Amino acid sequence: MEVKGTAVKSICDFVKTNFPEKYTLWLNSLPDKSRRIFLTGVSTPDWYPIHDGAIVPTKALGEMFYNDSKRGAWLSGRYSADIALRGIYKVYVKLSSPGHIIERTSRIFAAYYQPSEITTANRTDKSVSVIITKFTQPHDVIEHRIAGWMERALEISGCKEVKVDIVKSLTKNQGVTEYKITWN
Question: pTM higher than 0.85, yes or no?
Fold first, then answer.
C-alpha cells in the first residue's frame, strides 16, 4: 500500500512547525527506510510505502511528543487539513456544506492512499458516517490521522462542536473502518 508524498511531507512539516528544536531527534529516531525518505526530500507528487512513509513516522512523533501515538496521529491529521485547505481551497470549504465536504473527502482520500475506497452513509444535516471499505494495510495511527483531518476540515468549513468517533475498525477485523461524525 502507498501514501501520496503530500501526506508524507505534512508529517515532517508538522514536526518542524510544532517541535523545531526536536526535529533532528525525531528524524534520528526513525529506522533507516523512513529516515531516508525525509533526508532525500519528499516529493509531493510521488508515492511512498505507507509503512515507512506514514505509519512509522507518525507513530514516532506521537510517542515522542505526546506519549500517545493516536493523539499525535490525530493532531498531525488536523495539521495536514490546515495545510491542504488554505488559499482558494479554504474559500471553497467555507462556502460548501459539511455534507459536501465529507463527500469530497471520499474522493480526496483515494488520492492520498492507494489502493483504498471510502464511502459515506447515513447523512443528515448534523451528521454523517464515513466508511473505509478498502485499505490493504490498516493501522490505528492512519485511522486517527484521517479522523483528525476530517475533524479539522469540518471546523474550517464553519462547523462547531465537531465530534469524530471511530466506531468500527479494520485493525480490529471488523470488515470496515467507520467514522461517525457529528457537528452543530
Answer: yes
